[in-house]
């Protein structure tokens, strides 16, 4: 994962560096824009009219002016403020009703000289309201060019709002109180009607009311207790009747022995079976015991027991018959009593229902009367509370700070305006810088050259590099041209290709200076170097050596002069120079000749390196002719000057005549602002010889120059042999 993220991080860092690079490259535009906007802000701030501010600080209490009849006696107090309370009050302060009072009080129409609507519009714009966070305080502020006017308006706005709010609240409370009085009168009528209805029910139903529910009586009788007693009697008789019916049915169903056994268990009055039947059973048991002992039927004991059992059986049979008659009589009696109780119960139920309905009507009328009476009592209490509250009404608005005339203006804010001007200027400047960078199609980097031309960058030459042979000692800038010399050597495919023309797309790109410094460095390295000034339009090479160019290339091409007559020895060892000569009328025609071709071939044999200066290739045809004559063509491009499409045309111009572009020299690079080139300068400085290693200035003696060149050649190994 770390390996995957590293390219993204590197790309992000590269983008940040690119952005910073744009700022550094365009810092002049940014500074200029910043100054212009800053000065504009300063001028505008200076000419702006001064305004003074006065404010009034007031406290607002939210009064509930609605009538709440049944919520106690807190009417006229203050409620918790809603979220939109302050926004509502702000609108009230700046409302027409409030501000028109200010206009009339201060006679602003006359003072300002405008119509009412215009004055109202102006007043609305200069009155500001704000809430102090965390408090119930509102600040009413007014800005005006006159401090006294600002003070008076702020005071009048606070007063007008206070009066407007007081009138509104008092009017609302009066309307509520009148409505409450009206409702009290209506409630009194309602209570009176409820009382009359209750009295009518009492008289009609014959109800005696002693003040408590337990004292409720109807016709002098306790109907509820009578009904309850009749119900209990009816239930008991019904139970008795059902028991008798059950016993009779059982007696009729059993035979004699079973009937005797059952009747013996009944607890009834005159029930002889209950006492006789156990004796009968005991006697019968004794009889059976004697019989089992072997006593015969004629035995006196057996005869006695037989007679006794017969008599007891007879009594039991008579008792059973009598018991049946008794039960039937009791059943008839219980049935009669049950029917009477049933009739009485039905009568009691009817009376009880009537009484219950009457009592319900009474209770409802009584409850309605008491409820209406309680409501009337609360409304009367509320009316008294409202009347007292109105008389003791406190102020809902309190002015804590009265407006005063300000001594210092609050507008314009010089510091803020200047800071904003600087910030806006900086932002605007950076924006312009990036916009210019976006529309700038010039060559900005080595990658631009190699991407569009498909040729290598041979060297990067820093800005403000002078003529090397005129500088004392070993200049660090010479290292750039040593790199150029080495790259030329390693980029030419054929060691015999030693004639190079230096071209550029336009004027002033440093082509001639590059050629002179390259020739100087090569001569220092021990190479016999020839410089030919073939710029027959505006020759400049002779100016670098203070040589007269009256005799030179054109003389050689147009006359029969010998080569030695036009080649001059410069003060630098191994460095030779052919001036341009007298400028001809047809420069291209002279250069495009067989003698020029022969000249190139001749000097190639005599010198290790031949450097030919030419005019701008896009301006005239001379450079194209020279590119076709020499072995290699080197293009000098000034950093951030020539558009990329023009640079491509330079390459095409060389290739169209059969020339061979060896590479590009990126000249006049500001390494101080372009950080991607700063390592060139650091290398030059780091590897430059110290003062103790620097010999006498070059040009005073060939031997010393040659020694320095040989030392440098030794450090390079066998590079010199390639020339």
Which architecture name of the domain at 454-722 does CATH use?
3-Layer(aba) Sandwich
Structural class: alpha/beta
Shape: elongated
Mean pLDDT: 77
- Which radius of gyration do the C-alpha atoms yield? 67 Å
- Percent in strands: 5-15%
CATH superfamily membership of the domain at 454-722 = P-loop containing nucleotide triphosphate hydrolases
Number of strands: 14
Provide the descriptors you would attach to this structure in a database record:
single chain, 723 residues, alpha/beta, Rossmann fold, eight-stranded mixed β-sheet, four-stranded antiparallel β-sheet, 24 helices, 14 strands
Task: Tell me about this structure.
With 723 residues, this protein is an alpha/beta fold. Among the domains are: 19-48 and 412-440; 220-390; 454-722, Rossmann fold (3-Layer(aba) Sandwich). 60% of the residues lie in helices and 10% in strands. Strands 7-14-13-8-12-9-11-10 form an eight-stranded mixed beta sheet, sandwiched between helices. The two termini are 52 Å apart.
Quick overview:
The protein is α/β, with parallel strands linked by helices and 723 residues long. It has helices spanning 2-25, 27-47, 85-93, 96-106, 108-112, 116-126, 147-205, 223-253, 256-263, 273-292, 300-391, 414-439, 446-453, 478-491, 511-524, 541-545, 553-558, 563-566, 587-591, 594-606, 622-629, 644-656, 678-687, 702-716, and strands at 52-60, 127-131, 137-144, 207-208, 217-218, 397-401, 457-462, 499-504, 529-533, 568-569, 575-578, 609-613, 632-638, 661-669.
